[in-house]
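Justification of computing resources. Each target in the renewal requires a structure prediction run like the one illustrated here; the chain below, 157 residues long, is used simply to show the kind of job we budget for.
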Amino acid sequence: MVNKVTLIGNLGRDPEVRHFENGSMVGKFPVATNESYRDKSGEWQTITEWHDVVVWRGLAERAERMLKKGSLVYLEGKLTHRKYQDKNGIDRYITEVVANTFRVLDKKEGGSSGNYGTTFPSSADSPPQGTSYELKSDATVEKVDSDAQEVDDDLPF
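Resulting C-alpha cells:
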C-alpha cells in the first residue's frame, strides 16, 4: 500500500513552529496549489487548493529558518486524518500532509527576480498552447515543449 503526497505550491503564511519541553518541534503552514484549465467558453480558469502541512523535529527547524509566506516549495509526505474536539466539545476532523522532505524552489537572492511563477499561472495568465513544465530531479522547474494537440471538450483535464 502507498500513501504518498507530492506538492509544489506557495506558502500561505510563515510557518508556525512550536517547541516542546522534550526538545521536539512541530511546524504548521498552509500551501496553495493552482490548476489552470480552459472552460467551455475558452476562458482560462484557475482552481486553488489549500493544503495544511505539518513538519516535525529537524524539518520544522529548517522550515522556520528557510520558509516564509509566498515561498515556492516542493514537498513530499503522507496524507493523515485527525479527529479532535473543539472548545464546545464538538468532534472536528482535519486532513493534513505530514511532510518528510521539502525543498525551496525560490531563486536565490541576487539572481533574477521572483520565483518560478510561470509554473502556477494566475487566472489572468494564458499559458501558450502546447507548453508544459516539468520538475527535474534536482527540484528545478523546466519548460518542456510538447506536441500534444488540444482536445475540444468541457473536461478540466
